[in-house]
Amino acid sequence: MTNQKLNIGIILGSTRQGRVSPQVGEWVKGIAGSRETANYQIVDISDYNLPFLGTTDGTEPGISAWNEKLDSLDGFIFIVQEYNHSITGALKNAIDFAREAWHNKAAGIVSYGSTGGARAAEHLRGILGELKVADVRTHPTLSLFTDFENWSEFKPQELHLANINAMLDEVETWSGALKTIRN
């Protein structure tokens, strides 16, 4: 493998007003920022103005920009919030607007919700498997009750740092390994 840094996108999985995923994403990026083996960047699906899948002819500029962004990345960290035991419709829609851009890359998942977002993360793992994305085992789960003040201001407990760093280690290792088969 070359000494070139990996490019890893921190994908914000919500588009709703008042969402807290930007706070969680910036926290992960802040922790990852000191690493010398990868560049981390926030990828906000709301920036791409993706239409609902099936309601378009596929020519909207956001669709090609989304695919180009994903194609430029070596791996992903998904910031996933649980809605009705699953991921958001916006995230599923964004995932479905790409195919090959996901292939042979690695992903970590940071989830939150009343039960740490664990059910949404498990749902996402099945989707990622279909897209040839290798998801890593370490999975930080954040509770709306203990890691958020008034369910809106993110105040993570220090105990999560070890899991975040372990997940980042795994994503970087797997992303580097998978990059060799994409080249």
UniProtKB/TrEMBL annotation:
A Pfam family that this protein carries is FMN_red
Q: Which family does it belong to?
A: Belongs to the azoreductase type 2 family.
What GO MF annotations does this protein's record show?
FMN binding; oxidoreductase activity
- Location of the NADPH-dependent FMN reductase-like domain: 7-138
Question: From what organism does this protein derive?
Answer: Rossellomorea vietnamensis
Taxonomic placement = Bacteria, Bacillati, Bacillota, Bacilli, Bacillales
Name listed for the protein in its UniProt record: NAD(P)H-dependent oxidoreductase
One Gene Ontology cellular component annotation?
A: cytosol
